[in-house]
Amino acid sequence: MKRARVVVLLVALGAGALAALLAAGSPPAKTVVVQQPAKQIDTVDVLIASVDIGTGNTVKPGDIAWEAWPAAAAGPQFITREHKPDAPEALSGTIARTAFAKGEPIREAKLIRADGSGFMAAMLPPGMRATSVEITPETGAAGFILPNDRVDVILTKRSSSEKADAKAETVLVNVRVLAIDQTIEEKNGDKVVVGKTATLELNGRQTETLAQARQSGSISLALRSIADATDTEPVRDGGVNIIYGMATGAGH
């Protein structure tokens, strides 16, 4: 009995030692990583500006190109290959009403067709006129008025008597500047455009008012803040025209 127990014990010890040896020498189990398939994003070809296009520039075939955009980011105003596959050819020769930056989606609302007319005539909305007025650095906000800014037009009347006060009144409010001399946009990063004439966008009645004001006295342009560019009425003292005491030195 004792010999049998010893044999069983030796066999058990041997099996345990063999199992431990096998466990120590076996490589660790590898962790299997299951990669999820990448989510596919639906894209659509959008017509974009392949170069910078300045205001008034004619669009050439090489200036615009198709580019893949996420379908969710393509607004309804964008031009897509699906709906207008011939857009690059159809829009060639149009004129940029406003500037396009490289990579910016092309929108037809920002393009015009001259159809033989000059750029300014094509740029004007229906019913509007382009009317020029003489300016100087003193009457044109020292040259800080740029195309597409909004201005008020101020008429200053002087009496024939040197002792009489001069009167100033706002005759036109919140009108758009189309150009300063021949400059229709900011050029080469310049922030000041000093010119001798400013071209304003006016309707027929406003054109008559400006013509009458030019014969009645001197004209000045007052630059409006972007914040109040949507206002339609000038700010006046007590609802009356502002009077400047030119001869006496009185304030307003």
TrEMBL record:
Keywords: Signal. Transmembrane segments: none annotated. Pfam families: RcpC (PF16976), SAF (PF08666). Residues 1-19 form the signal peptide. Residues 44-112 form the SAF domain. InterPro entries: Pilus_assmbl_Flp-typ_CpaB, RcpC_dom, SAF. This is Flp pilus assembly protein CpaB. It comes from Blastochloris viridis. The lineage of its organism: Bacteria, Pseudomonadati, Pseudomonadota, Alphaproteobacteria, Hyphomicrobiales.
